[in-house]
Amino acid sequence: MKNKHLIYIVILVFVSLIGMWGVPSLVKKATYTPEKYPFIHYSSMLEKLCIIEYKDKKTPLKDLDGHSYKDNQIDSLLPLLNYRQLVMNGKMPDSIHGKAVDVKQIRAKSVVFRFNPDEMQQPDLGLYILFESMPKRGKLEIPDDIFRLKNNIEFIDVQTNTVNPEKSELFQSALEKEGFKFPSQWNSGNMNPRKPYDEGYFSLDSQGQLFHTKMVNGRPYVKDTKVGQSIDIAHFSMLEVADKRFYGFLFSKKGEVYILEGDAGKYQPVQLDINPLDLKSDEFAILGNMLYWTITIKNQSGAHYYALDANTLQRVAEHRIERTEGRWDQVSAWLFPVYLTFQKKESAYIAPEFHFTGFKALGINLLLVIIFCIFARKQNLKQKITGSLLILVTGIAGGIALLVVPRN
Predict the structure, then answer these.
(1) CB neighbours of residue 191 within 10 Å
(2) Shortest CA distance to 388 belongs to which of 373, 405, 407?
(3) How far, in Å, CA of 274 to CA of 283, rounded?
(4) Could you tell me the end-to-end alpha-carbon distance of the chain, in angstroms, rounded to an integer?
(5) 3-state secondary structure of 117
(6) Do 390 and 398 meet the contact criterion of CB atoms below 8 Å apart?
(7) How do strand 61-63 and strand 68-69 relate by DSSP bridges?
(8) Residue 327 CB-half CA count within 13 A
(9) Ordered strands of the 153-157 beta sheet
(10) Is the Cβ–Cβ distance between 35 and 301 less than 8 Å?
(11) What per-residue confidence (pLDDT) applies to 362?
């Protein structure tokens, strides 16, 4: 048969690729343990980052200086985190370091936010709900239409599945008048009706300019935020906070994080005093109160914690925990110099990805090559070279392929 050797090599490579995915997957299931990092929060009373471990019944709270605090102290040392318990016990302070506090203010100033890298990679259906921002009955209601915004803006009646030309033209004219350049790159908003109010959508036009669009009394409200003139915008996450201080979080392509404040039609980005994120891999979370924001950033190298002043968003404390190697890291470094996966941790998409663990496993591969050459003494030189190169590159997976694929 012509090209018999080439067909044999193709089959070997195919089976080796399956082995490079299958064998490490089985080993990982047996050895992998997820990374665990402690819950760290900034204490407004101690003015320190503290580690909270609720499983420790005697001393669940420890600061980074090594001091431990008993169970009956945890609520009073974290009053803005545990204010409900303090209020119920009648022990809620009326001020913290001279700043007056009350429950209504605590609730209004609380900020809870989380960003995952797959948020930027999720498929966009391209259909959005636009609420009335000033509802007559004071409650957000699901409208009778949805809209799409790409090459133009169109409102579609959900009952008849037809375009509403009057409303579409009204918003199209408003966008064009404000200077929006089609097509739109992306649109960001919160379509959950269970929110205190609605601020519509922020959209990035074809020129990289960020526009704010919402509906007020049935008419379009469109503003060019002008933010794109100073920031190379990558992403925006809407967060309609109770005190209406800001619209949401703005991420630049350099990984800088901002809140977008708004007052009297003006939009002001305020940068968070943290190191830039890697938007493809970093997990970002905020647990904030009226005095301080505690920020957690996790990635493959570890966890980084920041405490920011809630007013200025300037850094007041930080702490880093390096990731420690688990059994899977140690085993994979010795057994698999290269292995294959089909699902990325930071994405919901399925795609092949090769992982290079280092040069430690090449020693095991060389040993496998020697064993192969000993048992393949009857094979010709071309077969020995093919098998040796395959094992040297793919290791155990290549050895399995040579065993299961017949030479004839």
Answers:
(1) 15
(2) 373
(3) 14
(4) 11
(5) helix
(6) yes
(7) antiparallel
(8) 8
(9) 145-149, 153-157, 162-163
(10) no
(11) 78
- Name the pairing type of β-strands 61-63 and 48-52: antiparallel
Measured CA distances, 209 to 122, 187, 230, 234 (Å): 22, 12, 10, 11
Q: Is the pLDDT of residue 272 over 70?
A: yes
pLDDT band at 245, cuts 50/70/90?
A: very high
For the stretch 7-18, what's the b/e string if a residue is b when 16 or more beta carbons lie within 10 angstroms of its beta carbon? Answer: ebeeebeebbbe
pTM of the model: 0.86
Q: Per the structure block, which two tokens stand in for 275?
A: 């190191």
- 247 φ, ψ to 5°? -90, -30
Instruction: Report residue 250 as tokens.
Output: 């703005």
Encoded tokens for 210:
């960020």
Q: Is the peptide bond before 183 cis (omega within 30 degrees of 0)?
A: yes
Distance CA 338, CA 164 (A): 56
Give the whole-angstrom CA distance, residue 363 versus residue 315: 47
Other C-beta atoms within 10 Å of 47: how many? 14
Average pLDDT over residues 342-368: 78
Q: Which of 301, 305, 304, 259 is nearest to 281 (CA)?
A: 301
What SS3 state is found at 149?
strand
Radius of gyration of the chain (CA): 29
Q: Tens digits of per-residue pLDDT, 7-61?
A: 878 888 888 889 889 998 999 888 888 888 999 999 999 999 999 988 887 888 9
CA atoms of 391 and 376, how far apart (whole Å): 13
The partner residues of 96 in beta bridges, in order of sequence, read 99
Identity (one letter) of the amino acid at 337? P
